[in-house]
Amino acid sequence: MSRSSSHGEAKKMPALPRPSSRPPASDSPTSNATAVDMPVRSATSLTIPDSVILVSPQNEILLLHRVKTSTSFASAHVFPGGNLSEQDGPCPPPENLSRHEDGPHYRRAALRELFEESGILLAKDRKSGKMLAVDEATREQGRKLIHQGKATFDEWLAQQHPDAEPDTEKLTPFTRWITPSANAKRYTTQMYIYFMPLPVNVDESLLKELPQEGEREEIQVPSSDGGIEVTEAQFLPAKEWLRRAQNGEIILFPPQFLLLYLVSGFLDQHPRTGLSVEEMEHRRNKLIRFIHSGSPAWTDKCISPKMTKVAADGRTVLALHDPGYELKGSKRQGESDYVVLVRFMKGSAREVTVALKKDILKDERSNL
To answer: Domain 2-294 is classified in which CATH homologous superfamily?
Structure first.
């Protein structure tokens, strides 16, 4: 990776992008369709991407930002991720509800796409369990070979070490998102969180390959049309990403904002700096326990955002309890306690906040 040293509101709800970073070339966030405008689209129209919330050894979060020539969500900051490929393994057919569940195909795709997009390799020796360290030049060559279809991720890993494999076991599911049924572009996106080893446990050669806090790293990512997209990769505390979004410095769509909000509540408690490794691990463990808690647990929540009302300040209130059209009648559920408030403007999302549903209802009653 080459490093850089620099550091009229829409009245209808636009299509929410999937919470990852590489949409199809034809994707666009500018649809203004609502549930009453368009018929329900079949399950076969759902693209099946996944995405990774990558937590660094310093408990910072990686976001990618398309710059310069990119046209797909060009100004949004997103988690790394992308669409499944045949090399990731078989995926259940559209009519099978397990298509919307965690599985080895999603996990393999998540780590492959992370590598293709950012050059960050999360692989291990299957015998020793030790993380695999590969020099930058070799990783850059591997990214190109895999993207060009000249090698699969597994084939390239085997060339680096005979016992190398993607570190899929350390991926923890952290919600699934299904685009509302009225939108023209729809996704069923599996989200994961991955904790890189803490500084005392990580190989020095792995640590020095990561951008330091606040350092922007420019990455050349091959695009679907054979060109090159320039992407900035940056690790920052979750609360700093949220602050920048709330100040209008960056764009975060509701899925990214909500998940960063939840992560920040555990990893960014005061004080944020000067922590012992034991305290950093303690915060991680609390977050992991939270992700596995709830009814359903956050590992199993399936969320299809639904516009429920317009707040007094004109922002859209998105309910998160609906699991999506494809899962109606199943046991899958979304999130019932939180809502997201957002101002959609020309296909963009601004003034995003997370609130408890009970507080929004209380405010509504007080204004009656």
So the answer is: Nucleoside Triphosphate Pyrophosphohydrolase (3.90.79.10)
